[in-house]
Amino acid sequence: MPRRRDEMVPDAEFRSYYGQPVIKQPIWHEPHMPTYLYLGGMSGAASAMAAAARLTGRDRLELAARMAAFAGGTAGAAFLVAELGRPMRFLNMMRVFKPSSPMSVGSWTLAAQGGLTSVAVGSAVTGVLPAVGDAATLASGLSGVAMATYTAVLLADTAVPAWHEALRELPFLFAGSALASAGAAVMLTTPRAQAGPARAAAAAGAMAEVVAGGLMERRLGLVGEPYRQGRAGRLMRASRVLTLGGGLLATVAGRSRALTALSGLAITAGALCTRFGVLEAGRVSAKDPRYTVVPQRERVDAGRPASVPGR
Amino acid sequence: MAERMGFFTDTTICIGCKACEVACKEWNDVPDDGFVFRATSYDNTGALGASTWRHVAFVEQDGRWLMMSDVCKHCTHAACLDVCPTGALFRTEFDTVVVQSDVCNGCGYCVPACPYGVIDRRQDDGRAWKCTLCYDRLRGGMEPACAKACPTKSIQFGPLDELRERAEARVERLHAEGVTEARLYGENPDNGVGGTGAFFLLLDEPETYGLPPDPVVTTRDLPAMWRWAGGAALALAAGVAACFLGRR
User: Fold this and answer.
1) Contact at CB, A103 and B233, closer than 8 angstroms
2) Domain of residue B18, residue span
3) Which residues contact B73 (CB under 8 A, 6 or more apart)?
4) Domain count of chain B?
5) Band of the pLDDT at A4, cuts 50, 70, 90?
6) Which percentage of chain B shows pLDDT scores above 70?
7) Are both B221 and B166 inside the same structural domain?
């Protein structure tokens, strides 16, 4: 009899080889990988904000957003290189462009993001070639939205059940988290009278992050269990509280320095908790053979085994 | 392009001698993978990994031992190869999947991408490693070391089409002899990885041996992933725009 996958009580009746994992756990480290996910997302959304500020003539906010985008992109790239097993070979990422590899697409996106935000900041700081700096800022708006969302595909394109099955919600979770992070960073570094759009971005991003995370955990059923239990569960719950609180504060912070600082820090901490929580949930999901075996066994027993159409 | 070559591992005649593990290590110069007493069975290597390219599983059941020499499946649609960002993983003229160790930068993406948990990164060396189906021996017209060393011909090497025919006949014969639980694993070109280059004859459900019952190449869903991410990217752009509209 086919079992329902949305059962809250997981099926204890599954077989395994001495309880050992079927798939390998992601080997990406803490804090490298989740910090990169945060910094890359923050950088990407900050670029989009810088482009919007350019187009609407908000110079001071634009400068802050350019700085945040540059700082996030470069620091993120450093974490990513440090994550490699052979850091000296990081340039091998550039020897091919492979659309079938989200990491290849992401490496080129990061290269574009890093280059454009460097030009934008270099021009802003030195005052050299302002037109080139403005063009780079506008272009980084495009690389930025790709930067803030590709990381969801990076995680979903694995055999890790908690990541792969979340392929619909992860991009919205990460986009929301990126927008909240960038809003927080920019509102903390812009004179408060001109930081209105940053506060709006922080609040909107925070709401999107909380809603997408909630939808994801609800839809995934058994496979989503790692997001609710143990350390990953604690991180995801902390993220929700911090992000929701910080987002609500951003809407009322107005010109109060203390409330702005509190809101920005809470949102940043919440975004980091999200990224660390998602990585940890992926590890748990890969380690326990239940999450790999049970859904696959259900497909087979229901007479709907997987296939690869059209390839 | 040469013929597609592969392994047919018939677990019904595996005696658990681990000659395949030893021969693989000897030929491929695979380093020590630890001397661990697992206290569960005669299995001392545990699972496939960066330094274990053949792994003999031991399953003790009522009145019988199941033994199976596991190996990289050399999938038709190989997730490790699809997601490798450097091109270090490539498909050979024998339709096998091999890592070029002089190109791999140890990004680790192939590791969670494999639906069988085969490929892994070596801690000290920083690069990803797995079975090459003895690419060097194949180029020299020889069979892989594990198949050569197998004393019972549980591991059979050859052109995949030929192996599939041989395996079908073997299952038919076992069924006729009353071994009705005999079944092939991985040989079906319509499965979630497009069929495997290394397939198995099992006597129980795959998960009993630590194999996934219905693996899927994760990149099958990549177009859908990019569509959802594209939607999120557009929503992000729209969200930013909305924050900047309105009064100053």
Assistant:
1) no
2) 5-216
3) B116, B118, B186, B193, B196, B197, B198, B199
4) 2
5) very low
6) 98
7) no
Q: Among all residues of chain B, which has the CA nearest to that of A88?
A: B105
pLDDT digits (tens, 9 = 90+) for A91-138: 999 999 999 999 999 999 999 999 999 999 999 999 999 999 999 999
Regarding whether B211 and B241 lie in a shared domain, the answer is no
Give B196 to chain A, closest Cα distance, Å: 13
Task: Tell me whether residue A258 is in a domain.
Answer: yes
Size of interface A-B (CB pairs under 8 A): 274
Are B167 and B246 contained in the same domain?
no
Q: What percent of chain A has pLDDT over 90?
A: 94
- Each residue of A198-219: pLDDT tens digit? 999 999 999 999 999 999 999 9
Nearest CA in chain A to B57: A17
Indicate whether B185 and B231 sit together in one domain.
no
Same domain membership, residue B122 and residue B91: yes
Burial degree of A215 (CB within 10 A; 0-12, 13-18, 19+) = middle
Q: Are B128 and B136 in contact (CB under 8 A)?
A: no
* pLDDT tens by residue, B24-54: 999 999 999 888 788 888 999 999 999 999 9
Does A251 fall in a domain? Answer: yes
Domain of A40, in residue numbers: 32-294
Alpha-carbon gap, residue B238 to A180, rounded angstroms:
14
Q: Would you say residue A222 lies in a domain?
A: yes
CB contact (8 A) between residue A24 and residue B40: no
Regarding whether B222 and B113 lie in a shared domain, the answer is no
Q: Residue B111 and residue A26: Cβ atoms within 8 Å? A: yes
ipTM confidence: 0.96
What CATH number is given to the structural domain containing A288? 1.20.1630.10
Mark which residues 212-271 of A lie under 8 Å from B by CB.
none
In chain A, the number of structural domains is 1
Same domain for B64 and B143, yes or no, is yes
Phi (first) and psi of residue A168, to 5 degrees: -80, -45
